[in-house]
Amino acid sequence: PYEVLVVGGGPAGASAAIYAARKGIRTGIVAERFGGQVLDTMSIENFISVKSTEGPKLAASLEEHVKEYNIDIMNLQRAKNLEKNDLFELELENGAVLKSKSVIVSTGARWRNVGVPGEQEFKNKGVAYCPHCDGPLFEGKDVAVIGGGNSGIEAAIDLAGIVNHVTVLEFMPELKADEVLQKRLYSLPNVTVVKNVQTKEITGTDSVNGITYIDRETEEEHHVELAGVFVQIGLVPNTDWLDGFVERNRMGEIMVDKSGATTVPGLFAAGDCTDGPYNQIIISMGSGANASLAAFDYLIRN
Ligand code: FAD
Fold first, then answer.
1. Which of 33, 73, 114, 140 is the least crowded, having the fewest Cβ atoms under 10 Å away?
2. Which atom of ligand 1 is nearest to the CA of 238?
3. Which residues is 235 bridged to in the sheet?
4. Is 241 in the pocket of ligand 1 (CB under 6 A)?
5. What is the Cα–Cα distance from 216 to 195, expressed in whole angstroms?
6. Distance between Cα 218 and ligand 1 center (Å)
7. For ligand 1, atom 39: residue with the closest CA
């Protein structure tokens, strides 16, 4: 059996695996797609000490670094189920069962898509999901934020300080964000909020040039010219396969303590799949290292 089995090959998983292997313990890593969300990212400018890089490049160096160590890499394998008897038993989609004394889940998350024409076509060409990452690319331009919940309104406030103008589109007749965020939003001069509207299409040629939405009351169609659209309708953690095994919050995020420990002894979690407050590469890596050190601590005590 493994001593540490990492499930997920993004920044959190890569970091957890390396920290475990450096303790000289038997380590394995299972990943559906090694690199994770980083593979879908164009430019990365906030991975501190690396001024600027591209997602696929960073993903390749993650893998290269993991390969420096004696780590069993099981790429293109999807975990299906986890059980604990004497040991943890991780069942893969292909039927194999892997055994381990401890497990670190780092299966990440995915942005919820709005599912309108133009969204897939213009991903990374004006359609963005992360204001901390991509906000500065739209400096001085006009953008829209889809979603009037906390993350949408936080994004709009954040972007308003960088871009020329922000249009917020909310499906419901009222914003769902906290009162204090709404107050701050409405105090800004370069933000327009439109409520009770349904996004119909993100338009563009080479990149985004506008957004079309329908007023749900009048059924009138409107078009706004802009350079970017931030989709902020939630992040879905990849944790369904753990349903009933470990405690998750309302959003499906795995609940962890300061060391990354979950409600199941010997089971740790790190990165975007947890209830940590912020989702970034550098934070995921830190949280993977944290969980891995905690797993080592658990192993020497058990
Ligand atoms: P992920 O990167 O999501 O990795 C999860 C891993 O688990 C993957 O290998 C996946 O294949 C695997 N997996 C999932 N389910 C299973 C399963 N059942 N079995 C086996 N494996 C599974 N952050 C920044 O700091 N800077 C940026 O500029 C930036 N830009 C971004 C741009 C985009 C378009 C996106 C989508 C995100 C961006 N982020 C950025 C956020 C950053 O990518 C994430 O916070 C980070 O990748 C999270 O790392 P993670 O390891 O927790 O999860």
1. 140
2. 15
3. 111
4. yes
5. 9
6. 40
7. 280
Assembly ipTM = 0.99
Mutate to test the pocket of ligand 1, among 33, 281, 287 (most ligand atoms within 8 A of CB): 281
Phi-psi sector, 271: left (phi>0), alpha (psi -120 to 50), beta: left
In residues, how long is the chain? Answer: 302
Of 167, 151, 234, the residue nearest 202 (C-alpha): 167
CA of 84 to the centre of ligand 1 (A): 26
pLDDT digits (tens, 9 = 90+) for 165-216: 999 999 999 999 999 999 999 999 999 999 999 999 999 999 999 999 999 9
* Rounded distance from Cα 61 to ligand 1 centre (Å): 15
User: Which positions make up the binding site?
Assistant: 3-18, 142-156, 262-272
Q: Which of 283, 287, 247 is nearest to 265 (CA)?
A: 247
Burial letters 217-243, b for 16+ CB under 10 A, else e? eeeeeeebebbbbbbbbebebbbebbe
pLDDT tens, residue by residue, 204-261: 999 999 999 999 999 999 999 999 999 999 889 999 999 999 999 999 999 999 999 9
Task: Supply 122's token pair.
Answer: 């213009």
Q: Residue 296, CB half-sphere, CA atoms under 13 Å: how many?
A: 18
3-class secondary-structure state, position 242: helix
- Would the CA dihedral through 224, 230, 234, 238 be positive or negative? positive
